[in-house]
Amino acid sequence: MSTSSNMKHSVGIWFFSWGFALMLFGTHSSCKNPNSEWEFYREIQLMDVGISGIEYEEETDVFWVSDGDNNRLLRIDRNGEIVEEVDVFRRPMHLSYRDGILYVAEFGADRAVFVSGEDRIAIPLPQHPDSPAGVDVKGDRMAVSDFYGHRIILISDHQDRTFGREGTGPGEFNHPTQVRFFGERLYVADAYNNRIQVFNEENDQVLSLGEEEGIKGVIGLFVDEEYIIATDFENHRILLYSREGELKQILEGRLQNPTSVIRNGNELFAGNHGSQSIVVFKRR
């Protein structure tokens, strides 16, 4: 079997077969240059939680975690204790927390939903996705990644549309996972093409990252005013790039099949599917 086929099989196991056991390697912490600003701080161990996505609710200092293995959403404190469980989902994947509302890509139900208080409301989409893996919202814009459809579904007050198809060229995808808005740009984790694609408002590719670093399975993605951060599922790494695409740091060692990542100030949180934990890095 080719290297590409092996990678696709391994990452595919995480998406399609739940409750599996991974062989875990390595327990030491390392942070590779060019600029080692971030270092391992602690690991929050969870019990029987197959982490797919993670978001941080700053106002209450808790995490939202999608547990795709057990078809549920969890609110978890910094000690790893479950403070709330919502078990009405079918394989929830990546999350987006915006203005007090949690958006969920429900992979097993072919829909995106939002959670606000007791409300669980399906979001009308202009096209029916085939297993959505990611969702994000910015203002009047929403993006949903259509995993099997190899495309992005966009919703706005002005126009609803889709773009992308299966392939390896600019604007083409091989099973897109997480999507993130920042500024006027849309960032897409193009999982099996092993890259991050960045698009302007006209859906033209303006940047592509990850090919030179040998990523195998871009599953999770986070973007803020300073960084583009991606998880490398097969290589057990997190890569931090500048917004211009310059590699700044590679984190590895305590990571075992990371699926999601978020940053809050001087803390970085990684959802570790392999070790069922949240790994915390701090800035020096």
Defining key terms:
284 residues; mainly beta; Neuraminidase; 5-stranded antiparallel β-sheet; 4-stranded antiparallel β-sheet; 25 strands; 5% helix; globular; disordered N terminus
CATH topology: Neuraminidase
The class by helix and strand makeup works out as mainly beta
Q: What is the CATH homology-level superfamily?
A: TolB, C-terminal domain
Shape: globular
Number of helical regions: 1
Under CATH at level 1, the class stands as Mainly Beta
- Strand content range: over 45%
Label the CATH architecture. 6 Propeller
Helix proportion of residues, in percent?
under 10%
Give a verbal description of the structure.
The protein is mostly beta strands. The chain has a single domain (3-283), classed as TolB, C-terminal domain (Neuraminidase). It is built from one helix and 25 strands. The longest helix has 14 residues, at 3-16.
Please give a quick description of this structure.
By secondary structure, the chain is mainly β. It is built from one helix and 25 strands. The protein has one domain (about 5-284): Neuraminidase.
List the helices and strands and how they pair.
Layout: H1 3-16, E1 30-32, E2 38-45, E3 51-57, E4 62-67, E5 72-76, E6 82-86, E7 92-98, E8 101-106, E9 111-116, E10 119-122, E11 132-138, E12 141-146, E13 151-155, E14 161-163, E15 176-182, E16 185-190, E17 195-199, E18 205-209, E19 218-223, E20 227-232, E21 237-242, E22 247-252, E23 258-264, E24 267-272, E25 277-283
Antiparallel strand pairs: 1-22, 2-25, 3-4, 4-5, 5-6, 7-8, 8-9, 9-10, 11-12, 12-13, 13-14, 15-16, 16-17, 17-18, 19-20, 20-21, 21-22, 23-24, 24-25
